[in-house]
Amino acid sequence: MSNLYVKNSIRFVLLILFQVLVLDQVHFGGYVIPYVYILFILLLPFDIPKSLLLFLAFGTGLTIDFFGNTLGLHTAALVMLAFSRPGVLRLYFKKTEFLSGEEPGIRKLGFMGFVKYSFSLILIHHLALFYLEFFSLRYFFTTFEHALINSLASLTGVMILVMLFTKPNKRKR
Fold it and tell me: What is the residue range of 79's domain?
C-alpha cells in the first residue's frame, strides 16, 4: 500500500513540474496548451474514496492555480472532473471488475477504452475551465471550439505519457 502512495506522490510532483515548467510556457498555435497534469486524477485507483478523490483534485488544481495565477479556475475544473469520474467509469465499464488498488490504465481498460474514458473526462474538464475563464455565453461556439481543440491536444499529451510509462504486457508462450 505504501508503494501506491510513493508512486502517486512522485507522479503528482512530476506532472505538476512538467505542466508548470514546460507546457505552460509553450502555446501551440497561439492558444493551445495541453493540460497533462489531469493525468494524476485520471490514474488514481478505481477504489479511491470519493471524498479523497475530490480532496486530491482540489489540491492539484490549487497547486496549478498557484503557479499559473489563475484564481481557482483549474481547481474548479479539476474538481468537476473528479466529481464526474465515477459516473464516467460506470457508464463505460459497468461490467468490468476492478481489483483493489488497480489503476485505470491501458492494460486494464484497453487502448480504446482508455481513450474514451480519458477524452470524456478531459472534455468535461476543459469545458468547465474555458467557460469559467470566459464567463460568458456570448462566444458559446468559439469557447466550445477552443475547449475541443485543447481537449484533443491534452488527450494527445496524456496518451503519449501513458504509452511511454506503461510496461508492455508479457507475452504468454
Answer: 2-165
pLDDT value of position 1: 55
d(CA 15, CA 35): 10
CA–CA dist 7, 131 (Å, integer): 33
In whole angstroms, what is the distance from residue 52 CA to residue 36 CA? Answer: 20
Report the candidate in 40, 34, 33 with the shortest Cα–Cα distance to residue 15: 40
The residue among 28 and 168 whose pLDDT is bigger is: 28
Total domains, the chain: 1
pTM, two decimals, is 0.90
In a domain, 142, yes or no: yes
Are the C-beta atoms of 144 and 127 separated by less than 8 Å? yes
Q: Does residue 84 lie in a domain region?
A: yes
Residue 171 lies in a domain: no
DSSP codes joined into one string, 14-82: HHHHHHHHTGGG--BTTTB----TTHHHHTS-TT--HHHHHHHHHHHHHHHHHHHT-TTHHHHHHHHHH
| Residue 138 cell numbers, joined | 456570448
**In the structure, what pLDDT confidence band is assigned to residue 130 with cuts at 50, 70 and 90?**
very high
